[in-house]
Design brief:
Length: 593
């Protein structure tokens, strides 16, 4: 094993480039667990290592970036192979590189920002890091490289795990900064450097191209005397003819390599999109250079913005605070003709309705987009709309884009939902997105109401979105509801209610925000039996089934439930299933027309 600390005193060290990019170019499909190739196809991993050594890399990273238990468990049966994958990763790199090359054990973050709703404790994170680091050390790496980190606490847990195992074993702590100089979790380079005071080697990789990494390291270098490392991406990728392509050329990298050395960077390599050609260009460009000394200066870290309270005001919110609110659910049409839905909304307004719920492809069946229908109903009738908004069909980018669009159109009441899976609908083969959960959607809406996107980037103004959440009426999990309320949920809308006792039990939780109860008038005993036996989450007591078998109408039962709802709840959502004329009969005794 090389003495890394002695080697670093001699000047610039050329690190290797992307492992994933090279494996992808060699035919390994995107989505395959690249770390697992250490076991199933070690020769392809060796090919990549050899190409970087031949290009002049003096530091080669193991193919273990995502080889921690939390990530590997996403793949069938790989969570049990943490030790094997990491140990073999270290041995493969050493076998190819020999004793004259530094072997860096690659350790990536346990979780990727916003990829998972699972929250791990500090102890769990440390255990997971320790599981990965141990076989890398046993396999003979010279240094551990913690890379692509977004949060300070996670990188501190990784360092803690290493130091518990092996005292002062050398490591590099690298954050992933975007073009704005911050990580995805909003960590600025200056704050990162100050938080890691005393760390020997720190730097940046991935995130952005050479320009963004250069800016971040220039700021970091002014507040720390640590050795600096830089491993930027080859710019941002484009998807061309079915392949991911990165724009930054080797000559562009060579130019920036000289600039890195000029600001005192010692370790220079590449990350996503870089190839042996990029590393060869870096080697040729800086082989005769030495890192310039840095002067520690006083730089003010960006002041963290204090999250001020933002008052969201909509007509629906005002009505819920003052009295009982009537809403009606309308499913968008299976086509582009909306006259029937508009007529239903006009009728509902005539009988005293307050707002229209617009469903979002309920039961994952194809219908018109909910947003344009909400806009048309509001424009034609003046009624406020509650836009159902699911996580099923949109990624984080599209979710935020459409929320901003809804706000611009004056559709300011949002019901945040997970959404029915495509498997239950008429396109069961459609790919579900579900990139975030309904809870994270509530959090996102709270963020844009404050004028920032989900990553903390400033927006042009704030939105005024009044967000509600859905809840079953039976088997309620109050903790999940409280979590959403704490993130900014302003009202609750329940699934259809058929049991008065469940109504009373739900309200006893005292959630402190208005509750709108779902009310679905049954139109036949056959429908009642279908809902009771085949629709997930729908609970219809046997007593209701018997009453309908004995000839009692669904409207009579609905009227009885409505009277109870009015006693205890702040509103009702009538679900006529396209039979809009029944609202006159249902509401005639309750609301003066």
């Amino acid at each position: 094993m090389l003495d890394f600390r002695e080697r670093i005193k001699k000047g610039v060290i050329i690190a290797d480039g992307a492992m994933g990019t090279m494996l992808y170019s060699l035919g390994v499909p995107k989505g395959h667990c690249y770390d697992e190739l250490n076991l199933s196809n070690p020769d392809i991993v060796k090919t990549v290592h050899r190409s970087y050594v031949a290009a002049g890399a003096e530091l080669v990273e193991t193919n273990t970036f995502g080889a921690n238990r939390f990530i590997l468990e996403r793949y069938y049966n790989l969570g049990k192979k943490v030790r094997d994958i990491n140990y073999r990763g270290a041995k493969i790199a050493r076998e190819v590189a020999g004793d004259g090359i530094i072997i860096g054990g690659s350790v990536g973050p346990i979780t990727r920002p916003y990829e998972s709703a699972i929250k791990l404790s500090k102890e769990e994170r440390r255990d997971i890091f320790r599981e990965q680091i141990t076989p890398l050390l046993d396999g003979g790496v010279d240094i551990i490289i913690f890379e692509t980190m977004a949060g300070v606490e996670e990188i501190k847990d990784a360092i803690f795990a290493l130091q518990k195992l092996y005292g002062d074993f050398p490591f590099i702590a690298q954050f992933s900064f975007m073009d704005d100089g911050k990580t995805l979790l909003g960590v600025d380079g200056v704050n990162a450097a100050r938080e890691l005071k005393g760390v020997e080697i720190m730097g940046a990789n991935c995130g952005s191209g050479p320009k963004g990494i250069y800016s971040a390291l220039k700021r970091m270098g002014c507040v720390t005397d640590a050795v600096l490392s830089a491993q930027p991406n080859a710019g941002y990728p484009g998807f061309v003819y079915g392949r991911f392509l990165y724009p930054a050329t080797p000559s562009y990298f060579a130019e920036y390599a000289r600039r890195f050395v000029d600001i005192g960077v010692t370790i220079i390599g590449g990350c996503c999109g870089t190839t042996p050609e990029h590393i060869r260009a870096i080697k040729e460009s800086v082989s005769e250079m030495k890192p310039k000394p840095r002067k520690i200066a006083t730089i003010r870290a960006p002041v963290e913005k204090v999250s001020e309270e933002v008052e969201v005001v909509t007509q629906l919110k005002k009505k819920l605070q003052k009295g009982f609110v009537y809403t009606m659910e309308i499913d968008p049409p299976r086509g582009g003709i909306v006259e029937r839905e508009l007529a239903g909304a006009r009728l509902f307004k005539k009988v005293g309705g307050d707002a229209i719920n617009i469903a979002d492809n309920p039961m994952a069946k194809l219908r018109m987009s909910a947003l344009p229908l909400a806009y048309l109903i509001k424009r034609e009738t003046g009624l406020e709309c509650i836009l159902h908004f699911t996580c099923r069909d949109r990624n984080i980018l599209a979710l935020q884009s459409e929320l901003l669009g809804a706000a611009a159109l004056g559709i300011n009441n949002i019901l945040a939902l997970t959404g029915d899976p495509p498997s239950v609908g008429d396109y069961p083969f459609a790919v579900a997105v579900f990139e975030i959960t309904a809870k994270e959607l509530v959090e996102t809406i709270g963020s844009i109401n404050h004028g920032y996107d989900r990553l903390g980037n400033p927006l042009a103004g704030r939105t005024n979105l009044f967000v509600g959440i859905a809840s079953p009426i039976r088997n309620v999990d109050p903790d999940r509801i409280w979590e959403k309320i704490n993130l900014g949920a302003g009202f609750i809308q329940t699934q259809p209610v058929f049991d008065i006792e469940l109504l009373r039990k739900f309200i006893s939780f005292n959630f402190g925000i208005p509750v709108i109860a779902g009310l679905l008038p049954l139109h036949s005993i056959r429908q009642a039996e279908y809902f009771a036996n085949e629709v997930p989450g729908m609970y219809i007591p046997e007593e209701i089934i018997e009453r309908m078998k004995n000839g009692e109408s669904g409207i009579c039962i609905a009227k009885e439930l409505l009277k109870e709802i009015r006693k205890t709840y702040q509103g009702v959502c009538i679900m006529p299933q396209g039979r809009y004329e029944i609202v006159k009969e249902l509401m005639g005794e309750e609301v003066s027309i």
